[in-house]
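Residues determine shape. Take a concrete instance:
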Amino acid sequence: MLIDIVSVFPEYFNVLNLSLLGKAQDKGLLEFKVHNLRDWTHDVHHSVDDTPVGGGAGMVMKPEIWANCLDDLLSIPPLTDIRDADSERGKNSNAILVFPNPSAPTFTQKDATELSHADHLIFGCGRYEGYDGRLPEYYKAQGFDVREYSIGDYVLNGGEVAVSVMVEATTRLIDGFMGNHASIEDESYTGSEGLLEHRQYTKPASWRGMDVPEILLSGHHAHINRFRRDEELRRTSELRPDIIEKLNCRNLDKKDRKLLMELGWNVSGDFPRYLS
C-alpha cells in the first residue's frame, strides 16, 4: 500500500518510521510519502491560506494550492473549471482521498477495514479553519473516491493527529502487519458485532491484594470463553448501550439472551431494547 500524506508540518510524521509501522515499511508492506503543501505555492511567503469569504475569524486553506498538490499526486492534468470535469476521470484511479473534518461522519473500525484493502491512500491534513469546502466536491465530481471523517466530537489544531489515528487504525489491519493476526480478531470493534473487549490479565495471578478472576486459571476453555463473552456484553451494555441496540437478536444464544435480560434488555424483538 502506498500512503501519501500532505501537511504544512511534514516533520510531524517522522514517527511513521517507528515500531510496527517502520517494520512494515522494511518488509515492503507499506510505503509512506510525506509532502509539504507549501512546496506547491508560488509566492515568496509560501502562503497556503486566505481570509474566509463572507467574513469570520481565522483563515481558510486555498483550494488551488491543494489542487496543484493533489493533481500531482494523482498524476492527472489540472482542470481550470469544474464544468470541464469528467466523472469518468477518476474511475481508473485506485487512490482514495481522505480528509479529516470535525463536521464529517465519525471514523469507525468498518471504515478502517475498508481503507486497509486500498492500494493507494492520500491523506490531506487541514489547518486553521480547514480547507475550502469546494475541494472534496471538486474531486468527487471527477469520479474520485473522496472520504471525509471525524475522529470524535472535538476540535483539534490540525488534521495531523486525526490522520495519524486513521493511518494506524488502517495499516494494522493489513495482512502481515501484525505478527499474531489473532490479536486483531479478538480486539474491540473488530468483530462483526463490535462489542467492547473483555479485560485482559497477566502474571502474577495475585497482585497487591487483587486476584485474576479464578475462571481464567481453570484451563477450561469453554468456560473461559463464556466468561469473556459475558464480560464483553456487560461492559458494552454499561459503556456503549448504542452498540447493544444494534445487535441482531437472532445471533444471540440462550446465555447471551439470559444475561442481557438480567442487565435490563428486552431481547424478544429483532434488536435489543432497554427497559427503562
About this structure: The chain has nine helices and eleven strands. The longest strand covers residues 2-7. Residues 100 and 149 are 5 Å apart (CA to CA). The radius of gyration is 23 Å.
